[in-house]
Amino acid sequence: MKLMPLTEPGDAIACAARAIIEMVQRKPDAILGLATGGTMEPLYALLVAAHRDGLSFARIRTVNLDEYVGLPPDHPNSYHRYMARHFLEHVDVPPANSFIPCGHIDPARAASQYASLLDDLGPVDLQLLGIGENGHIGFNEPGTALDAPTRVTALSPITMAANARFFSPGAEVPSQAVTMGTAAILSARRIVVLATGRAKSAALADALDGPVCPECPASYLRLHPDCTIHADHAAGALL
Ligand code: GLP
């Protein structure tokens, strides 16, 4: 795992975006693993700007990490809507080429269908990853095994509290999600992690300097042969 020098947040975001842009330029039919969360919003803005400047995503396929259980795809807080709003509506990825798990009807079945889809697609060329305040990746929460499958999982109280900021006041934050498992995440050919802000500093320190263990699923990234971390000074404050 390679930690890039700590930078201002804009530079970390630009470096992670550049890794994706270079992948698309080098391999126009790449499979991109995509992430959601506040951290990624400015990164998608840079990808959309690159598209306006001529970069085509027309042959790319995208697979997302996760989706909340109980939210239909058109719910404003679903990751389907997030991806449409921040990326897919603004670029030329054909709708049939982008895949996000479904969480609203029969999530267990949706998870096993998503696992089969990931198997059929083959290895992700570049997996973009954020990190949860508690060290989660995707929605693989503390306690997740190294080889966990794509599945329905319970969200920790820390994750629910952190993500409550995206929901209207008083709205119920989902307590479960369909997530790509750690095994699938780690099977990507290349992983690019983006971590910005002080809230990520403890998780990043645990991931990089603590034991490789289920209590911090992001620590598993140290076992990956091609994982690069882009972090700002705030996220790296405890390193
Ligand atoms: C979310 C997502 C993750 C994301 C992480 C950080 O809940 N499931 O894929 O990387 O938590 O989110 P944020 O960038 O909003 O801090």
UniProtKB/TrEMBL annotation:
Transmembrane segments: none
Domain of life the protein comes from: Bacteria
Keyword Isomerase: no
Keyword Hydrolase tagged: yes
InterPro entries named in the record: Glc/Gal-6P_isomerase (IPR006148), Glucosamine6P_isomerase (IPR004547), Glucosamine6P_isomerase_CS (IPR018321), NagB/RpiA_transferase-like (IPR037171)
Matching CDD domains: GlcN6P_deaminase
Domain annotation Glucosamine/galactosamine-6-phosphate isomerase: ranges: 17-222
Keywords tagged on the record: Hydrolase
PANTHER family listed in its UniProt record: GLUCOSAMINE-6-PHOSPHATE ISOMERASE (PTHR11280)
Protein name in the entry: Glucosamine-6-phosphate deaminase
Organism: Paracoccus aurantius
